[in-house]
Amino acid sequence: MKTDTDPQKIEQLLTRGVEHIYPSPAFLEARLKEGKPLSLYVGIDPTSPDLHIGHSIVLRKMREFQQLGHTIILLIGDFTGMIGDPSDKSAARVRLTREQVLKNAETYTQQASKLISFEGKNPAQLRYNSTWWGQLTAEQMLELAANFTVQQMLERDMFEKRMAEAKPIYLHEFFYPLLQGYDCVAMDVNGEIGGNDQTFNMLAGRTLLKTLKNKEKFVITMKLLADPTGKKMGKSEGNMIRMGDSADEMFGKVMSWTDGMIVGGFELLTDVPDEDIAAISKSLIREEVNPRDLKARLAREVVRGFHSTGEAAAASDRFDQLFREHEQPTDVPEHRVTGPTPIVQVLVETGLAKSKTDARRLIEGGGVKVDETVVEDVEMHIKPGKNGVLIQKGKRHFVRVR
Predict the structure, then answer these.
(1) Are strands 368-370 and 373-374 parallel, antiparallel or unpaired?
(2) Does one domain contain both 70 and 217?
(3) Which of 89, 116, 47 is nearest to 200 (CA)?
(4) 222, 238, 257 — which closes off a domain?
(5) Between the chain's N and C termini, which has fewer beta carbons within 10 Å?
(6) What is the CATH number of the domain that holds 394?
(7) Is cis: bond before 384, omega within 30 of 0?
(8) CATH number of residue 71's parent domain
(9) What pLDDT does 281 receive?
(10) Phi, psi (degrees; rounded to nearest 5) at 201
C-alpha cells in the first residue's frame, strides 16, 4: 500500500508539537517521501485507570501517521507497568500487581479511540509487552543488559538527583530503560513517539535495534504542555485533564491553566492552524486581547476534540453562567430525603462524594456549601424547607435536596 506523501502534511507531521527527531528530521522526511508504510508505536504503562491529556499529545501525532497510511501500534506496558518508569521521579514508584495493571488498562482502547482509529482500512494495532517479556529467559535478559553500562544509567537526571540526596536507587529501576528499549526490537518497528521525558528510554531502544537487527529506528520526542516557567499541569495542581472527564470538567480545568499555557495548548491539543496560533501568540505579547477569552476558545477546542462541538458550546455557556455572571445553574439535579439527614450521608447518596471519608475531607477543606454558606461542621444535618436546600461541591457541582 502506498502512503500519502503530500509535502505539506509531512512538514506538519515533522514540526507541529515536535521537540526533537532522532537521528534527524531529514532522515525521517526521506523515509516518509518514499511512499512506503512505516510502523511505529507509542507505549503506555497502565499505572492508573485513566489516560490523560498528556497521552493525547502523542496519540494526536500517531493519528497524523495513521492518516498518511502508516501502521501505528498502541503498546500496553502490562509488564513494564508492574515495575514502574523512574523517569522524572525523585523516589521509586510503588510497584503494581499484574491484576492491577490489567484492571487499569481495561478502558485504554476506548479512551484512545477518541483520537486514533482501531477500525477501517488502516486500523491501529493493540499489543501487550507481556507477550514477549513473559517468554525471555534469564540468559537472554543478561545478554540484553550487556549492551548498557552502569555509567550510562547513572547519567539520567533523576538518578543523579537521588544520589546527591542520598536516596535509594533500586536495581529494577535500572532495568526499566532496557525493558522499554527491547519492546521495539520485539515488534521490529521503524519508529517510536513519546514525550520528551521519555527520550532516554526511547533512545535505549534505538541502541538495541541498531545492535541486534542493524536497523535505524526514528524517535520523535514531543513537547510537554507547560508554562514558560516550566510548570506543568498535574494531579497536585488539580488541573490534570483525564480523557474520561466530562465536558464541564475539561472546560473548567483548561480555564484554570496559567496564561503561559495558552499558546502551547493550541499547538499540542488542537487542530487550529499554525498561522492562527502565531497570531494568538502575537496578540498575547502585545496585550491586544484578554487572555481569558483566548483560554475560553482553547477550552472549547479541547472539549470539542473529546466530546462534540455542541457539548463544548454548552460547557462554555455553563461556565460563563457560573463564573462570569455568578448565577446558579438552572438544571440542578434533585435528591429526596425523608427527614433531617447528615450532610456526610447526603454527599455520598448524591454522588458528590465517593465515601463518607471523602465527604468529611471535602467539608474540612471548605469545599462544600449549603445555600451558598460554607459548611464547617461535619456533623451538620440537612433539613430541607419548602424550596429545598442547594448543596454545592467545589465550583461546578450542585444538587438540590428536597
Answers:
(1) antiparallel
(2) yes
(3) 89
(4) 222
(5) N
(6) 3.10.290.10
(7) no
(8) 3.40.50.620
(9) 95
(10) -65, -40
b/e string for 95-105 if b means 16 or more Cβ within 10 A?
A: ebeeebbbebb
**Residue 198 and residue 296 in one domain:** no
In this structure, are residues 84 and 45 in contact, taking their beta carbons and an 8 Å threshold?
Answer: yes
Write out the three cell numbers for 394.
467545589
* CATH code for the domain of 316: 1.10.240.10
Interatomic CA distance for residues 340 and 381, integer angstroms = 6
Q: Which three cell numbers stand for residue 364?
A: 474540612
Burial (0-12, 13-18, 19+ Cβ within 10 Å), 342: middle
Query: Do the beta carbons of residue 104 and residue 71 sit within 8 Å?
Result: no
Sign, CA dihedral 313-318-321-323, equals negative
Q: Give the pLDDT confidence of 166-182 residue by residue, as tens digits.
A: 887 777 777 778 888 89
pLDDT tens-place string over residues 100-115: 888 888 889 999 999 9
State the Cα angle at 17 between 153 and 245, rounded to 5°: 90
AA identity, residue 375: V
Q: Which helix (H) or strand (E) holds 363?
A: helix 356-364
Instruction: Report how far apart, in Å, the C-alpha atoms of 165 and of each of 161, 168, 272 are.
Output: 6, 9, 44
* pLDDT value of position 133: 85
What is the reported pLDDT for 89? 45
The answer to whether residue 320 is domain-embedded is yes
Phi (first) and psi of residue 275, to 5 degrees: -65, -35
DSSP E strand boundaries for 330-379:
334-335, 341-342, 368-370, 373-374
Show the cell assigned to 246.
466530562
| Three-class SS state of 293 | helix
With a cut of 90, say whether residue 239 has pLDDT above it: no
C-alpha cell at 286: 502585545
Domain co-membership, 289 together with 397: no
163 is written with which cell numbers?
544520589
Whether pTM exceeds 0.85 = no
Residues 309, 347, single domain; the answer is no
User: Are the C-beta atoms of residues 341 and 359 closer than 8 Å to each other?
Assistant: no
Task: For residue 74, give the C-alpha cell.
Answer: 498502541
CA atoms within 13 A of residue 23's CA, in its CB half-sphere: 10
36 Cα distance to chain centroid: 30
